Amino acid sequence: MITVIIQGDSLMYKHLLITIIFSIAIALVGCSEETAPAPATQFIQPIDVAEVLSKPVQSWHTYTTRIESPEEVALMPRISGVIEHIAFQEGDTVAKGDLLFQLDNRPFVAAVASLEAQVVSAQAALAQAKSEAKRADRLAERKAISTEQTESRKSTLRQREAQVSALQAQLEIAMLDVEFTSIRSPINGVISRANITKGNNIIAGQSILTSIVSNKKMYAYFDIDERTWNKSFSKVTTESKQQVVMQKVGQKGFSHTGHINFIDNQINASTGTLRVRAVFENIDHEIRAGSFARIKLAANAITEQIIIPSKAIGTDLKNRFVLVVGENNILQYKLVEVGERYGKLRAITSGLSKGDIIAVNGPARVGPGMPIAPHNVVIESDGIAFTLNAIDSNNLLAKR
Predict the structure, then answer these.
(1) For the CA atoms of the chain, what is the radius of gyration?
(2) Domain ranges for the chain
């Protein structure tokens, strides 16, 4: 603080006071300008960046399907009767020929016994007719019997022969009926529950006793549109055993491998699709008929494509773009076209080139034209199958 004491002529002293105050004010302003702080330095955002990958890849096509068994039987009886015994445990694996149901066979055994007796009687009558026919021939040679009597005895012989044949046929049918009282499995597979239980009467060709499905192999039918087939699979045949992979509901990876073993002989004119079937070995019985599944089928052509993380791709209205590191570490906007997805990675069909450096996390915190402080990282691709040859047999497409 400055104190000024003035004495004497008041007007002169007033002018002097104003001059002193003005000088002091200028001095204070000068001091304040000299001590003012310098402006703050601009902050540059650190960002993870990586060089794009270039990989040989195959285009994958995905289809949905229901698993079917190659053999499925709705078991029905060949004869009517009463169930006497059920010889299987519901849900068990059964072999062809295993006894499943036993019917009361007593009426059928009695029918066989009756027919056997009739056959014996008919055979005795046939033997007599043969003897009389031979005697008639001898008598006819000596003219001791008329021609009419000879023909009558021969006619009787033919009737007895026919009677024996008819009774033997009936006996065979009756014996088959006895055999059919033991209802056996016609295929190897897994049996369902018994729809009709012990003591109930069943009707031949109508009553469904249970169902059996084979479980060694499983089929998956799916439809490929005509354009895709002609573009990617036109040279595929059943002999080439084109490989496919399958994912069941609730699974993360495509852990089941199979191949195409049937291609329909014509395009469906109504839908413009071709019906194709893949077969899967079911050694461990993990695949059940009727289950929902996804099928992946790889195109035969292998092409070299740019691979980047899916999170590096931004969306601008209808466009897809990627932020590329340019000169002076300034981000640039690049339009891209995306291809197949491979786990957390994505193929880029156009817009990027080998050697490009991109912002790995996309436009999450940065935008085009921004300077950045790059932090170099590597795009992880281990364990991801880009082609059929790269599929790991223990973890098929687990990261796709």
Answers:
(1) 47
(2) 1-31, 47-57+301-390, 62-70+213-300, 77-211
Asked if the 47-57+301-390 domain carries CATH number 3.40.1190.20, the reply is: no
Phi and psi torsions of 3, nearest 5°: -115, 125
Look up the CATH number of domain 62-70+213-300: 2.40.30.170
The answer to whether 366 touches 323, Cβ cutoff 8 Å, is yes
pLDDT tens-place string over residues 65-75: 999 999 999 99
Concatenating the DSSP letter of every residue in 290-313 gives T-EEEEEEEEEEEEEEEEEEGGGE
Q: Report the chain's mean pLDDT, rounded to a whole number.
A: 86
Provide the 10 A C-beta neighbour count for residue 188: 16
Given a contact cutoff of 8 angstroms between Cβ atoms, the answer to whether 209 and 183 are in contact is yes
| CA–CA separation, 59 and 400 (whole Å) | 13
Domain 77-211 in the same topology as domain 62-70+213-300: no
* Range among 23-27, 124-128, 360-364 with highest mean pLDDT value: 124-128
Q: Helices 106-141 and 147-180: crossing angle, nearest 10°? A: 160
User: Which amino acid is located at 68 in the chain?
Assistant: E
Task: Provide long-range contacts, Cβ within 8 A and 24+ apart, for 109-116.
Answer: 109/178, 111/174, 111/177, 112/171, 112/174, 112/175, 112/178, 115/167, 115/170, 115/171, 115/174, 116/171
Which class is 77-211 in CATH?
mainly beta
* Neighbouring C-alpha atoms within 13 Å toward the C-beta of 51: 4
- Token readout for 167 is 């009774």
Helix or strand holding residue 189 (H, E): strand 189-191
- What does the alpha-carbon distance between residue 238 and residue 274 come to, in Å, rounded to a whole number? 14
